[in-house]
Write a structure and sequence with these properties.
Elements lengths: L3 E2 L5 E3 L12 E3 L19 E3 L1 H11 L6 E3 L5 E4 L5 E7 L7 E7 L2 E5 L22 E4 L13 H13 L5 E6 L5 H11 L3 E2 L2 H9 L6 E2 L7 E5 L5 H10 L2 E6 L11 E4 L7 H11 L4 E3 L7 H4 L17 H12 L6 H8 L17 H5 L68 H13 L2 H7 L2 H17 L1
Parallel strand pairs: 2-3, 3-4, 4-5, 9-10, 10-17, 11-14, 11-15, 12-13, 12-14, 15-16
Antiparallel strand pairs: 1-2, 6-7, 7-8, 8-9
Helix pairs in contact: 2-3
């Protein structure tokens, strides 16, 4: 899917997943190619802003309800939204019928979203772009590579005509997508004075696009035929040539694999060549370039053309009240309960049974180990047999520790001045703080089986002795 939600704005272009659109509330459609309409269907229930021609195609092709389609005139500025409004100007993108670029203006700055486009020098005469300072340029980077040189579409059309003249007794089949390359078909029809045979649905679309009357559905009325690009393959060429000598033309700027000697790719592209992209960016001098086709590092090619006069824009991704609240929470540190404080300062004294490196990836597994629990209704349970409460008392010494496994929180830990708590840790020293459950139940359960039962049945000193005995066995082995 070639679309995006523009950060810091309420804008989504060619992006139709409401669940992943975040705070976007203004949805724009650049053109009706299928890779830009994934998720847009008859069930769509939000306003869609597009050009008038795309609006007509949208209703016919995808059955989007008319009440949600909002056509905007090309070349005019439109103010949309409430409160923080967005001004948008639609500009012809020279890609396919109805395709447009979007110029957005608002508190977020000025953004040009090209969608799919073929740059032409005439764009420099566009009043909405002349002298315009752009903060962000979302660029169609389909052919953004120095090795992808392409001729102009006019020159590519002449190459197609030359190829046809070299096969005067052949029928010609042109492979096209459902939308696009109509200008090439019209040029060839005019050049050779013949009808272009198309399917009934394509003829209906040609009339909807108000193209010259050079198309027909009558077989045999013309010797140039337009078919879906998927039909240009070995078996169809064989069958066509059994009936009449036929050549196939594939107008595309992409590298293709030729499967039949009568298939001829022609470098006719509706996307900008690399040199055209450089000229376009050099002319606009935006502050930043963002590729529309993901996974490309094409920004490197345009760094020398970027403007150095970039103003700091407000960060709209996090509202100011939220940022202030976050700062206040950072300043106001909650006091640690004694058990957590012991864990924070005594991790290095913990029992580590293997080298930390060995358990870097497994430490999270230990933290997920849970002690068996019985049902209790409150956060601090006092039932006699419930393991949520563990009380260790020794005669003559006031040591009491309560552990709540449902709501891990240290209630009280009155430690004698001579005695320190025993902390058993399975996490490497450099790892972030463990929770109460991790400290008490993590590696202890893994290696000492049921430490809570041990705590129930023995005193703290006895538990210390068990740990020391373990170390002695390890050293002896």
């Amino acid at each position: 899917m070639n679309g995006t939600v523009i950060p810091g704005t309420p804008i989504a272009v060619d992006f139709w997943s409401v669940r992943r659109a975040g705070g976007a509330r203004l949805f724009f459609l650049s053109h009706l190619h299928s890779d830009h309409t994934v998720g847009l269907s008859s069930t769509w229930s939000r306003p869609v802003y597009c050009s008038p021609l795309t609006a007509r195609l949208l209703r016919r092709r995808l059955q989007v309800p008319a009440r949600w389609i909002r056509p905007l005139e090309v070349g005019q500025s439109h103010v949309l939204g409430e409160g923080d409004t967005v001004t948008v100007t639609l500009l012809d993108s020279n890609h396919c019928p109805g395709s447009v670029m979007f110029l957005f203006e608002g508190a977020f700055g000025t953004i040009l979203y090209t969608g799919d486009f073929r740059y032409a020098s005439a764009m420099q005469q566009e009043p909405a772009l002349r002298g315009r300072r752009l903060d962000r340029l979302y660029l169609d980077n389909t052919h953004c590579h120095p090795g992808r040189s392409l001729p102009s579409r006019r020159h590519a059309a002449r190459l197609a005509a030359r190829l046809i003249r070299a096969h005067p007794r052949h029928h010609v089949v042109v492979g096209v997508y459902s939308l696009g390359k109509e200008t090439l078909l019209v040029d060839l029809a005019m050049e050779f004075g013949t009808w272009v045979v198309v399917s009934p649905w394509r003829l209906e679309q040609m009339r909807l696009l108000e193209l010259p009357d050079v198309f027909t559905t009558e077989e045999g009325a013309g010797w140039i035929r337009a078919v879906d690009v998927a039909e240009i393959r070995w078996d169809t060429l064989v069958s066509w040539n059994l009936l009449h000598p036929t050549i196939a033309i594939l107008p595309t700027g992409r590298p293709v694999k030729v499967t039949h000697p009568k298939i001829y790719p022609i470098p006719y592209s509706d996307h900008s060549s690399f040199s055209e992209l450089c000229e376009f960016v050099k002319w606009l001098k935006p502050c930043s370039v963002i590729p529309i086709v993901k996974g490309s590092m094409c920004q490197l090619y345009f760094e020398k053309y970027l403007s150095s006069d970039c103003q700091a824009l407000p960060d709209l991704t996090i509202p100011e009240p939220v940022r202030e609240l976050v700062q206040q929470k950072k300043k106001k540190q909650e006091p640690l309960c004694p058990l957590k404080r012991v864990a924070q300062h005594s991790v290095s004294r913990g029992v580590v049974f293997e080298s930390p490196e060995k358990y870097v990836d497994k430490s999270e597994e230990f933290g997920d180990v849970k002690a068996p629990q019985q049902n209790c209704e409150s956060g601090f349970c006092s039932k006699k047999d419930c393991i949520c409460r563990v009380t260790c008392k020794e005669k003559g010494e006031g040591i009491e520790m309560e552990i709540n496994s449902h709501n891990p929180q240290c209630v009280s830990a009155q430690l004698d001045g001579e005695r320190s708590a025993v902390v058993i840790s399975t996490r490497p020293v450099s790892q972030s703080l463990a929770s109460d459950e991790d400290v008490l139940c993590g590696l202890a359960e893994q290696y000492l089986l049921t430490p809570l039962n041990v705590l129930k049945q023995n005193s703290v000193e006895k538990f210390d002795e068990l740990v020391e005995e373990y170390f002695r066995r390890e050293e002896a082995s």
